[in-house]
Amino acid sequence: MAKKAVQKAATPARRASDAGRAARIEGGAVVVTGICGRLGRRLARQLHRERPVIGLDRREFVGKPKDIEHHSIDVRRKKARELFRRPDIAALIHLGVMHDPRLGAEEHHTWNVIAFQKLLEYVERYQIPKLVLLSSANVYGPRPDNPQFISEDAPLLGANRFSDIRDLIELDMLAQSFFWRNPGTETVILRPAHILGTVQNAPSNYLRLKVVPTLLGFDPMMQVVHQDDVVRAVRLALRPGVRGIFNIAGPPPVALSRAVKLLGRPTLPIPHAVARAGVERLWRWHMTSFPAPELDFIRYVCMVDDRRAREVLGYGPKFDLGSTLRAVDEERWV
Question: What is the pLDDT of residue 140?
């Protein structure tokens, strides 16, 4: 019966509609939130060679290519809605997630969750055919009972020990709900492992330290992915017909101690209790950008199974382990 229903639905009008949507996705304009971040700028500089790119970010776009249209608009304001009225908009790529742990929970929630809810409203109202959310493998959470590799259907437990992950999990869940509620939009959620490069995130900042602190008795296997491999995964997610959740990994996993050694950094092993107390004190004194719960990422395993991305997206990392690790020391001009 299900097969007959599918065959009945595949009318000439339906096929024409699907073809029109695919053509729109393939060549239409792409709205990129968070375009002024380092990852957003790298993505924009590749995408604008292929299709119109519209930036939506309240920050200034330093070094913006002339053919990229940029709007310095807070996505929470009504003016942002006008962008999505345009008939040429083919996709929304949402990179505009706030990760500053020093800002209050209310500011985080308003910027991350309320703003994303508004964006989803615009995508639904104006029937934008493609939505791509850059989430993170951190939503699974580093835990002592994690399996060796976590699949996309695993529960999102990252906030159990690290409350700052809560907004990211809520965004991920909102996108999942939108996926089922709006089948006319191809929704893609990407969950990359630790992104390394010129980006100012916790993994890259940690590996840039001149002396890298580690936890005595812990040497977890870890996954890292080059920022440009993540950019390529986003571009692959824009292909017509692609939808769903995809874990994104880089080169084969490596022990934390091996990764630090390859970078030529000295380590400073510290007992966990001492490290936690020290980080909490430095945090209160505004002498570190790492909150204490971040220590779990150098204590427990959180690695993902990326087979679905390889099989469905056609994704595979282009950068080997050495290149990925060394990316944290690249000049941060982008």
Answer: 97
Type of residue numbered 172: D
Nearest to 101 by CA among 306, 283, 261: 283
Q: Amino acid letter at 50?
A: E
Contact 259, 224 (CB under 8 A): yes
Residue 106 pLDDT exceeds 90: no
DSSP E strands in the chain: the ranges are 29-33, 53-56, 69-71, 89-94, 130-134, 186-192, 194-196, 212-215, 221-222, 224-226, 244-248, 254-255, 267-270
- Spatial contact of 303 and 149, defined as CB atoms under 8 Å apart: yes
- Cα–Cα nearest to 303, from 250, 227, 261: 250
Structure tokens, 21: 């949507």
What does the alpha-carbon distance between residue 75 and residue 58 come to, in Å, rounded to a whole number? 8
Question: Region 180-184: what's the mean pLDDT?
Answer: 95
DSSP 218: -
**Residue 225 identity:** V
Q: For the chain, give every domain's residue range.
A: 2-196+224-250+303-317
Give CATH for domain 2-196+224-250+303-317. 3.40.50.720
Q: What pLDDT band is residue 6 in, cutting at 50, 70 and 90? A: very low
What is the Cα–Cα distance from 55 to 44, expressed in whole angstroms? 8
CA angle 84, 90, 96 (to 5 degrees): 65
Q: From residue 327, how far is each of 194, 219, 227 by CA, in Å? A: 12, 22, 8
Tell me which residue has tokens 């990179």. 95
Q: How far is CA 320 from CA 249, 252, 313, in A?
A: 12, 8, 19
Residue 172 tokens read as 């991920």
Query: Given strand 244-248, what is the order of strands in its sheet?
Result: 69-71, 53-56, 29-33, 89-94, 130-134, 186-192, 244-248
* pTM exceeding the 0.85 threshold for the entire prediction: yes
Pairing of strands 221-222, 254-255: antiparallel
pLDDT at 103: 64
